[in-house]
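Need tokens for this chain, all 290 residues.
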Amino acid sequence: MIFLFLSILASTITVSFFKIFERVGVNTLQGIIFNYITCAVLGNIFTSETPVILTNFYQQGWFPYTILLGFLFISIFFAIGETSQKMGVSVSMVSAKLSVVMPILFALIFFNESLTFFQIIGIGLSLFAVYFISRKHNDGSTKTKNLWVLPTIVFIGSGIIDTTLNFIQKQFIPAVSEAYIITTVFSIAFIVGAFFLTYLVVFKNEKIALKNVYWGIFLGIPNYFSMLFLVKTLSYFPNASATIFPINNIGIVALSTLVSVWFFKEKLNNKNIIGLVFSLLAIVLISIKF
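Here are the structure tokens for all 290 residues:
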């Protein structure tokens, strides 16, 4: 289970970087873009198969889905960064990890799977959890009141990502490994980001600061290894994904909350605490298959 612990730790470190970005003045979007080139390079180095860049991946049946995921990875990761900076690390992680609800509903509708009583209760709790965890003290301004949009975007976007990955897993894996597909997605996310950054530089006169580059590289290291360690965990326990994913999600939510409170001195009000409890309980209930 050491790989599962390392995945939880790496995921928590990853999202915590956004609070550091805020403190040292890093451009979040630029940092994310350089993060993905790091993930892509590491993915090609550590893959046990032929490196993605040396294959005809663009001719594979799963490639169109990786294009969608590439766009979503960079946009939702940016939304997670904004949520972490403006509402806290715990809010961003609860919103992201409760998105497990969406692939379950997708499987119910398109793969004729059924829901247990506990899963139904868990899905209901997850909606309340996102509401309560996103309730922050505000100053009454429209800008502050509308912050609830950020965790909602993270919740929906992360759910679409999880649903698409679930579909790919059912349709194309193990014919091709999940790690191989993820490396392709990382590469596409960087390409998408690079085109957008080029547009900003050429047409909007945006400058690329050196600190955005090296902080983005630092971010990419734990981001990549959080995925690698999770894939390794699943390879050791191939028939236990229904248990591994909830444990992973609960661990990330719990640890990121501790980090946000202890290290970043974030304050949780009573509604946030209720939302946190609801989120942990929801993940447990959703994982129950009987």
